[in-house]
Amino acid sequence: PRSTLFPYTTLFRSSFDWALVQTEVAKFTTICTYDVSGTAWSDPGPKLTCRARAGEVHRLIRAAQLPEPLVIVGFSIGGCVARLYAAEFPQEVSGMVIVDHAFSPDPDPAPPNSPPVSFRGLDSPPVLISQTPIAIGAEDSSDFGRLPESARELHRWAMSLHPKLPTWNDAEDCLAELKNTAPGPFPLGNLPLAVVSTGNAARGYDRLQAELLGLSHRSTQLKAERSFHSVEIDQPEVVIAAIRQVIR
């Protein structure tokens, strides 16, 4: 089994997918979203290692002359990038939100002859048939129609460019970097941290979410029980609440 608790990988995520979060968060603070190099309007960049991604975000923030420190939000594998960024540039981060970060170097083993694991709150049959990643996209894993038509069109356009996307090896690279760069208990210290978890009933998911809460002495958990993975589309209000809470 790969080093993951999430039995699938999303094909594409972009700034357009956060349209429902952006408009609301912009009402109480400045929100900036970006597309990683090689996706949408972003030019190709270096190999998508976790350290390269963190460095890319750092250069972008400096080029945009954004006021620091920042609340940084990381979704899925972006949670690894956010954690590494905070370890590399601690003076530039005042808070963190991690959204459905579901990667672990030590997944719980499945007992023999165990039945497939289902996801709470879904009408479809169980989709976890093994720990082999299943490739799906935002259109398949969310209520994609909730996004404005303009955002959906941009998403499809960006997909048509066949962007280079992170792999499971990239996720493992991130976990190795975090182990070396941010070891020990409470690596985030007293940094305000909000962990947004979904209704994922996969074995070990709840344990991992508890470990994420242990990254900081000042952590809190928000649940998006009706979301499969795309919380920013299915339950944007939960992400908005997490960001608002950390900012406060």
Structure explained in plain terms:
The protein contains nine helices and six strands. Helix 3 (78-88) links the parallel strand 2 (70-75) and strand 3 (93-99). The model is unreliable at 1-11, 105-112 and 114-134 (pLDDT under 50). 35% of the residues lie in helices and 12% in strands. The chain is α/β, with parallel strands linked by helices. Helix 1 packs parallel to helix 9 (236-247) and helix 2 packs across helix 3.
Number of strands: 6
Helix amount: 25-40%
How large is the count of helical segments?
9
Beta-strand content estimate:
5-15%
Q: Per the principal axes of the C-alpha atoms, what is the gross shape? A: globular
Separation of termini? 40 Å
The largest sheet, given as strand count, sense and whether it forms a barrel, is: 4 strands, parallel
- Tell me, rounded to a whole number, the average pLDDT: 80
- Ranges where pLDDT stays below 50 over 5 or more residues in a row are 1-11, 105-112, 114-134
Placed side by side, the strands forming the largest sheet appear as: 2-3-5-6
The helix/strand class is alpha/beta
Our Rg estimate from Cα atoms comes to 17 Å
Q: Write down the secondary-structure element order.
A: EHHEHEEHHHEHEHH
